[in-house]
Structures are given as C-alpha cells and as structure tokens.
Amino acid sequence: MARVAPRSWLRLPRRTARLRLTLLYTGMFLGLGTALIVGTYLLSSSSDSIQAEAVAVPGPNGTKVFEGPAPPGFEKVVGSRALIKGIVASGVSQQHSADIRRLLGTSWALLVVTAIASALLGWFASGRVLRPLRQMTDTARTISAGNLSRRLALTGPDDEFKRLGDTLDDLLARLEASFEAQRRFVANASHELRTPLTVERTLLQVALADPNASEATLRATCQEILACGEDHERLLESLLTLASSERGLIHREALDLSRLAQHVLLTPRPDIQRNRLELSTNLEPAPLAGDPALIERLVANLVDNAVRYNHPDGQIEVRTSAANGHAVLSVANTGPVVRQEETDRIFEPFQRLGGGRAARADGHHGLGLSIVRAIAVAHGAEVTARPQPAGGLAVTVSFARREGPAEAQSP
Known about the structure:
CATH superfamily of the largest domain: Histidine kinase-like ATPase, C-terminal domain
CATH class of the largest domain: Alpha Beta
Largest sheet: 5 strands, mixed
Helix content: 40-55%
Structural class: alpha+beta
Shape: elongated
Strand content: 5-15%
Radius of gyration: 43 Å
Mean pLDDT: 76
Distance between the termini: 55 Å
Number of helices: 10
Number of domains: 3
CATH topology of the largest domain: Heat Shock Protein 90
Strand order of the largest sheet: 4-6-7-9-8
Number of strands: 9
C-alpha cells in the first residue's frame, strides 16, 4: 500500500524565532489579561456585602423607605426592618451577581479578541525586529571560501544586531586575510619545494646525457645533488616547525629565557668571526612557562637573522629582562636600512628584504622570522620590529609570565 504524504496544511509550522517571540508575546498578554479579570472579579465580589448594608434607610415618619437598587416594581417597602433588609439584600445580591456574570463574559470575550490582535501585532513586530538577522543570514549564505570579500554592512541604530554584524564583519576580514596568507604560503611553498627537485633532475639528466662523463664528473654531480638534498631538508624542517608552531602548544613548563638565550649564543656561528661582528649581551633572569624547544628555536632564528643581515664590523645586541609581569627578549643588529613599511612583510613566509620572493642563492628561504612570529603567537607573546635609525632591525618578543605549575594547552 502506497504511503500517503501528509497534507501541507496539517504540518506544524517551523519553530522559528519569529514564531517563538509571537507565542511569547501572546502568552504574556493572556496571562496579564487573565490576572486583571480575576483581580476585578475578586474586588467586585468583596463589595457585595457593603452595598447590602446601605439599601434600607428609615423615612421621616418612621417608615422604612427603600433607596438604591431594588427588584423591579418596588418603590417603597414598609414593614419589619429585618424583613425589608433581607428582601432587599437578596435582590441586590442577585442583581450584583448578574452584573458580575455580564462583566466576566464581556471581559473574556474582549480578552480573546485582543489576544488575537496582539498575536497579529506580535508577529509583525517580531518580524520587523528580526529583519536585520534575516539580512545577515541571507548575506552569510552567499559568502564562501572564494568570496570572503563580501560584508554584512548593517545600517541602523547601534543595537545588539548592529554590534553583531560589525563583529561578524571583523571576523570575515580576519578570515579573508588568513585565507589569502594561506594561499600565498601554499603557492610559495610549492615553488620552493619544486625548485630543488628540478635542479636535481637537471643535474642527473646532464650527467647521464654526457657519454664522456668521468668518475670525477659523476662524483661532482652527486655532491651537488647532496647539497640540493640538504637544502631541501632544511626547507622541509622549517616548514614542519612553522606548521607545528601555528598548531599551538602541546605542553608548557617553567623555564628561564636568559638560560635559553645563553645556550643559543654558545653555539658556534662562523659568520660572526668571518664578518668581525661585535656581540654584546645583557641576560637578566626572565622566567616564563612555555615549550623550551620552540622558544630556543625562536631565539636561534632571531640571532641567525641578526648575523645574516649585518655588514662587516657590525654589532649584535641580545638582551633578556623581566618587567611588568612579562619576560622580554630583544635582539638588535646593524645592517642595511629597513623601511617601516617592510617590517610587517618580512614576517610573512618566503619574504625577505629587497622585495619579492626569498632568494635561494644563500640557501635560505625567508622562513626564519615567520617561524618566530608563529612561535610567539602560540605562546601568547607579542612581537614588534623597529628599524634602527642607522640601519638594521630591533626585534622584541614579550612573553606573558605564567605563575604556578605548567599546564597543558591545546589549540
């Protein structure tokens, strides 16, 4: 037997926010209206005995004259005061009960009518209030990973919806910048990873195509391929470090930034002696909580960057300190003049001074400072770069000190 689909008019409406607000408005109106009617009924019932006491008043000749509400056909009632009072009180009570019944019936009828009207008004009012939310929903549906330039751009009073729209616009702007940086990173990484493979293939093809290749020629080719492989390995290691830093910290432990900096500076760097660089240090205790391996890599990258981008007989200054609840590392060097507008670009992957993509002639790929920033962000630290007036760069990393035992942290 075929299954018959239910009719559309039998289906319950979706429980939208507009419907819930309308039901809430109507329910509150019915509750308050019911309370008002019940209060009116209780007040009217309590006044019944008071009216019955005042219906019989003695006349000027001792007769009992009926005044006030009375049953139809009565103008004067003469007789016993108790009898008259009882009859009149009974009539007044019946009349009062009839008035109360009519009042209640009329009130309930008016309440039903006004409740229906309030439901209609609540439906339209809630629709008008929720209109900005519908606009945000419709606009958000058109936004995708390839169209992050679209904004909600809500107008109107500075209410909760306007602030929500502005917050979402800021979020979309950050997402657009992040997606653009990711696309640029993937494009640059693909190019940098493809170049060593192309060089290796070319060397092998040339060596194999030479019919007169000697053992010395093949050995030289193998040495060049090994050098390319080492360069490729350094690039992959840098990319893995960058990816792990951006993923966040797995654990933290208490450490001293000055000891890590001292350990890094004890590592031999031939370029310091070759270029006759003067190294000055001021390593004050700077406790913090973090990943020792990553922070040591951060210090090493800053020192290597200060050595690499320096001129002969230049200077390098490394300082650590603790101030205002922060552990601070500062690495400054002399060297070429850096423009202020370049300080943000050099922290991007595969970017170096001099414009454009990182040059590979010296075996470096422009990932050092991008790794520094990723490690700093993972530790909740702030990185600032300030060009030196006479040339060179001063990079400062400020870590927030964490007291107490180290805690695991996930991204």
